[in-house]
Specification:
The protein is an alpha+beta fold. It contains 7 helices and 10 strands. It binds a DNA duplex (16 and 16 nucleotides) through loops.
DNA sequence: ACTGGCTCCTGAGGGC
DNA sequence: TGCCCTCAGGAGCCAG
């Protein structure tokens, strides 16, 4: 399930193969993703050169002179650069074929992902316009998060998973960050003091940066663009460890449902 | 303005 | 070995 670190790993893996390349063709085998793959992608992207491969939150942007392809991996999507003639698998829905004979191939069994096209600046696209700051940028600091939490009755976990508040923090890293910060996930966001948000911001940054360094988290099937798994799952302290001893205090890690999401925490270490 | 619930989809994993 | 059932999960969308 790609969160920000997995998307960033993917971006770093594909960017060197894409930048400067000219698109020859877009092959859509299954247009029914989260939203229909737009016809204009197939008519307007071919002929263009990829100028840059960027990431905004969990969105990947393939930028050209005339527009940008916007990609989202949903929860089961992955991107690989394949050689011409590589036979597509059952869930290989879209190929962006380059003049050099290689293709960027999107595989997404659950089809929660998306491939879109915009000829305006990507940042003004409906899906990107209202996104919160990048968690690894200077804009994401304790003052900002504290201010964003005032008056909010949602749990602090839901707050940091809200992409309008901060992008890229998914279910796994939310639990991990709150454990590191010593904050209970279910605490109403508006009742947490500024000083504790200081710890939380530091924890989110630390967890995400460490996950990127480890190549991401592979729970089921995430691999980078070269097919390598991530190693951060070995560093997960609480996620998926309900009933196991807490790595800090030895108490039992508890799991609960929070906003329809599986949540893990240590009742002794997190308050 | 907020909030919680629903929705898309398929593979994995458990029970028997 | 195989079948059926349940569930995970990003995040936009909508109703209250």
């Amino acid at each position: 399930m790609p969160e920000l670190p997995e998307v960033e790993i993917t971006r770093r893996g594909i960017a060197p193969h894409l930048e400067g390349q000219r698109v020859r063709e877009v092959v859509v085998r299954q247009p029914h993703l989260r939203w229909p793959v737009p016809a204009r992608l197939r008519s307007e992207l071919p002929g263009q050169h990829i100028v840059a491969v960027r990431r905004r939150g969990k969105y990947l942007l393939l930028e050209t002179e005339v527009g940008s392809a916007i990609l989202h991996l949903g929860m089961s999507g992955s991107l690989h650069v394949v050689a011409a003639g590589t036979p597509p698998g059952k869930h290989d829905h879209v190929d962006i074929v380059f003049a050099n004979g290689r293709s960027l191939r999107l595989r997404d069994p659950r089809r929660f992902g998306a491939v879109l096209w915009t000829t305006r600046p990507a940042s003004s696209h409906k899906l990107l316009r209202a996104l919160g700051p990048e968690p690894l940028s200077d804009a994401f600091d304790a003052d900002y998060l504290f201010a964003a939490s005032r008056g909010r009755r949602v749990s602090v976990k839901a707050l940091i998973m809200d992409s309008k508040v901060v992008v890229g923090v998914g279910n796994i890293y939310a639990s991990e960050s709150l454990f590191l910060a010593g904050i209970r996930p279910q605490t109403p966001a508006g009742r947490i003091a500024r000083r504790r948000y200081q710890r939380l911001v530091a924890a989110v940054r630390q967890v995400l940066a460490a996950a990127i360094e480890q190549g991401g988290t592979t729970l089921r099937d995430f691999t980078d663009s070269e097919g390598r798994p991530g190693y951060f799952q070995q560093r997960l302290q609480v996620y998926g460890r309900g009933g196991e001893p807490c790595p800090l205090c030895g108490g039992r890690i508890r799991s609960l449902q929070l906003g329809q999401r599986n949540t893990f925490y240590c009742p002794r270490c997190q308050h």
